[in-house]
Amino acid sequence: MKSTRTVVFPGAASFGHTLSPLRRGPADPCFRATGDGSIWRTSLLPTGPVTARISRAAPNAAHCVAWGRGAGEFVEMLPALLGLEDDASDFVPRHPTVAAAHRRVPHLRLGRTGLVLEALIPAIIEQRVPGADAFRSWRVLVTKYGTPAPGPAPRACGWRRRRSGGEPSRRGNFIAPTSTPGAHKRW
After folding, report:
1. Contact by Cβ (8 Å): 74, 50
2. Whole-angstrom distance, CA of residue 117 vs CA of residue 184
3. Beta carbons within 10 angstroms of residue 184's beta carbon
4. pTM
5. Where are the residues of the annotated region Disordered (predicted)?
6. Does the domain made of 2-104 have the CATH classification 3.30.70?
7. Domain boundaries, the chain
C-alpha cells in the first residue's frame, strides 16, 4: 500500500528541525536524513508498519510518500507531525535564550506524533543510560527484534518489546505499557 500527500506551510518551513527530536542518535534505524534533505522515517502505527520519505516540495511545502499498511494513517497525521497544528502567530519569546534560538531558527514548528509508546520506550531507555549507550540499546531493540518496515528505505524497521541490552531493572517498564491492548491510548 502506498500513499502520498503534500502539505503547504503558511510561510517558510524547517521540517528537518521539526522532525529531528524524533531521531534517537545518528544511527537510529527508524530515522534517516539523506544528502538531498529528505527525511526517511519508519513507525509502527495502529494500522500497521510504515516507511515514509518526507522531502521539500517548495520553500513552504513538504511532500510525503509512505509505504505499508500504515501509509494512509501516516499521511493523515503529517500536518501534526510537521507542526502545522502548532500556531505560533502570537508567540513572543521573552527569555533571552529562547529569543536567540528563535532568531536562529525562526521557522521551527513543534510537531507531534500522538504515538505514546514510540516516545515512551526510548525515554525509558534514556532515563539512566548515558546517551551513546541509550542510542545503541534503541538500535539493538529495533534491528534485532523489530517488525521489518515496508517500502524502499534500507535497513529501516519498526520495533517490538524485547531485551536489548538496556538496564535490567527497566526492562519490565517496556512490558507494562505494552501488555494490554490499547493501553497506550489511555495515557
Report:
1. yes
2. 6
3. 15
4. 0.76
5. 152-187
6. no
7. 2-104, 116-186
